[in-house]
Every structure is written in structure tokens, then in C-alpha cells.
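Example 338, ligand EPU.
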Amino acid sequence: MQVIRNFSLKEYNSFGIDVRADKFISVSSLEDLRRLLKKSYSSELFILGGGSNMLLTRDIHKTVVHIALKGIKVVAEDENEVILEVAAGENWHELVLYTIDQGFGGLENLSLIPGNVGTSPIQNIGAYGVELKDSFESCHAMNIQTLEEKDFSREDCNFGYRNSVFKNELKGLYIITSVRFRLSKKNHQLHLDYGAIRNELEKSGINDPGIQDVSNAVITIRRSKLPDPKEIGNSGSFFKNPVIAKRQFEELQLEYPEIPSYQVSSDEIKIPAGWLIDQAGLKGYRHGDAGVHKNQALVLVNYGEATGEEILNLAKMIQDKVYSKFEVPLEAEVNIIN
Ligand code: EPU
């Protein structure tokens, strides 16, 4: 395990924010992870996965532990299903492509989501009508303080919309080291109803799609709307889509009859934060190198040299503007490190 001092994290967070870590260690085996945890106080460590869902606003005066555990293996299968165990440091999208290549169904709608496998359960990543929890079997994790290892079932994880036990009661307590997925080998359950998937398939003249076609459609849709973090720093959706009371929604609807919405329960409605920000006139807004993406107002971007503080100030300005126009509070989805 090599310790690098005064290390720039620019390449290790998808926002491309140039902050420094006092020390940086990349860990590629469970033994090394155990050894490192044994000799460190948990308060001295900062655990880093794919860095795709965080906004770094300051230098990290700790030892940054980069989880680089690799490996994908089949741990059980029958003629219908397979259980795949994937190490935390595997790249999410490469995993999706691998499963499609093997003919395993379940992850195709989650194509092109940035980040690593180990952090995917923390926020229960989701897109186009599918969430991680739908194919999640269990995950294995190590307690940072006691080194105890534990398997978490789907129930243990208490998944919600961009949420799990690892963002709440167990925040900062465990390092997820691997995730098991239950995937289909045949009779794949395709999810085509969300957003533009069916449209995209029709455009390509596909009327009997397979998992590969769905993945291709999702990739095309995402590329048309969402910036590639390799080209423009970003963290996907910066805010969660807010859930409001039906009564407030009906009032908004009187003024804005075209407001998009999804029913969450009999008295709660989810509305797209991107629409609210767009209506507040902020789509494409730019101040210095911090901006609101021109095709999807829910995504904040770093055009190059923005600091975390500048992105955070932009986020606050957006929250204020949206609140004063609609009286709807926006909550960050991205983990803000300050
Ligand atoms: N909209 C606008 N203007 C905008 C953006 C969106 O009017 O600038 C409207 C759209 O026209 C549409 C609605 O808002 O009617 C919803 O937009 P979209 O389908 O793009 O989805 P979203 O609700 O903005 C969510 C996820 C995305 C995910 C997409 C597709 C959250 C916070 N975001 O976005 O997830 O890819 O649905 O499933 O739930 C992410 O989490 O990083 C992410 C990209």
C-alpha cells in the first residue's frame, strides 16, 4: 500500500474539483483494507468510492482511502437466474456492459450511470423506472471501527428514493466491499415505460427489444441530455426531485397547468426539480466556471476551474430562487463535503 502525500483529488471526483488530500492510499485487497483500518482511527480516514456523488468544498486533512477492490464472479445460478458478486471498486457502467454481454438482465436501464459498484447501494442509484434495489441481493461490508464484517440483505438496507440505511443510521460506519445482484438469464422483465425509452426504440425500428437494445436506448437518451463527466465535471442530478402535498401541487397546477408530476401516494406528488429550476429561468445559467447544464437543469456543472464553494453557492442560489417562486424546498442529492 503506497501512501501519497498532498495528493490532488481532481481525477477522483466526477465534478473535477481540485482539492488536496493530506494522504492518499489506494486499497486493492481486503487484507490491505483490514490492515489499514487496524492501524488507523476511523476519524482520520475519508473513504472514497467512485467520487461521482459528492461535492468536495475543501482540502481533506485526513487519509483518503480509495476503494479499488476488483473482481466479478458468479456465486450461484440455475437455469433462470444468476447471482453475481461484484467487488466495490468495479466501475458501474462497465459492470452493466459485462452483464449485457453475458446475457444477464436487470441492470440495462441503469446504463451509463457514473460511479463504482460499492457506492451504488448507498444512494440506491436509479434511472428510467428502475432502481438498484430491484436487482440487489445483498452486500458485504466492513465496520470501520470494529472491523466486523457483515452481510446486509435488501431489507437491512432499507432502500428508499436515492436513499438507504448507509445514508442514515449507518452513515460513515461501514465500507461496502462487494455487492451481490440477482439477474435473469431468460424471460427478462424489460422496463420500457419510463421517459423516452419506447420512443427511442421506435426511432431505431426495434419492436421486439432485448436487454442490449434497452441499454443502447438508455445510453442514447442519457448522452443527449446529460453531460459526460469526462468532458464537463458534474455529479448527475444535484438535487432530489421534491415530494409535495397534493394540495400544494393542485395550487401549482392552477398556475402552471403543464407541470410534470408522478403520484407517490394518495396525498403526495413528486415533481421534477429540473422543471422547477428550468421555470425559474436558470437552465444554462453560468457564473465563472460553475453552471447549470443547458440540456438538463437538474445537473450542475464545472466548466473547468470552479471550486466546490462556487458550486455550493450556485446550489444555494438555485434553492433560494426556486423557493421564492414555488415555495418548494430543494434538497441536495449529492453528498456535500464541507
Ligand atoms: N425537465 C424540464 N427541464 C429540465 C429538466 C427536466 O422541464 O431542465 C422536465 C422534463 O421535461 C420532464 C421532467 O422534468 O418532464 C423529468 O425530467 P427527466 O426525465 O430528465 O428526469 P429527472 O426527474 O429530471 C430523474 C433522475 C435522473 C434519471 C432520470 C431518468 C432524480 C433526482 N434524477 O431525473 O437521475 O437519470 O430521472 O430516470 O431522481 C441522477 O440521479 O444523477 C440522475 C441523472
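Summary: The first strand starts at residue 3 and ends at 8.
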